[in-house]
Amino acid sequence: PLVRLALENLRPLLKRAEVGLLKLAEKGQVRSEDDTTLPEHEFYDQDVFRKAGALVDAFDRLEQSQRLIETAPEAALHGAGLDRHTWIEYHYSYYLITIVSLADVALVLANGVFRLGNRERDCKQDLISRNWWVAQTPVKGALEGLAKLTRPHKEGRNRHVHWGRLQPIAEVMESKLLDQLKLYSFLQRVGKPVVASSILDQAYRLEITKISGTLDLERAQIEGGIVALFDALFPIYKSRSEELHQSWRRGMETTGEPAERK
Question: Residues 91, 97, 102, 108: what is their CA dihedral angle, to the nearest 10 degrees?
Fold first, then answer.
């Protein structure tokens, strides 16, 4: 409902943008040089839509990472001097970075919906969830719930981002077989295989199925957390958007001129 309502509120702006883009195309231009600020209500709707969309896009990238893990193109990997284990851990590292970022993206969204005015880089958990306006609503619990779901992945993410080391997938899955497969995969890549390719393929298929099962469960929990956050933010956004739209309409009725964003 949150994203749907924001999109519905943006329809007049999108229609104007469509007309403007057609005019630019006719002139052979790619962007407008008009820097007129949006009315406050349109700026708010656009801001919330973009930030909610960023959270949805980030969640979608979790599934994309998982699908890439599942579909390692063996022939292409060998041609590029890579092996399947490297492929799996590379895409899992991106999965980790993305899943940890969800809590931060959610804080930025809440900051925008409540119109708290904090810079995006300053949107930390305590600053947002303990804000007086936020703390009076279910949004506080939703933010904390999402942060709790992403917190276990921070160490693996930090290992990559700050220490330059990928999170070993064998550690994540607590799998001795995956640890062995990493060695066998490397030896196969350098031309000194000790296990037949068919056996290696079968073993990886088994382990990838287990990895996918784990990621499916994690993504389901994260999805529930995002839905809970959107549900908690919806009445706040709806109320503030309606207030801004009404204020704009009153201004138009009184002066005949739209009020610019403050």
Answer: -140
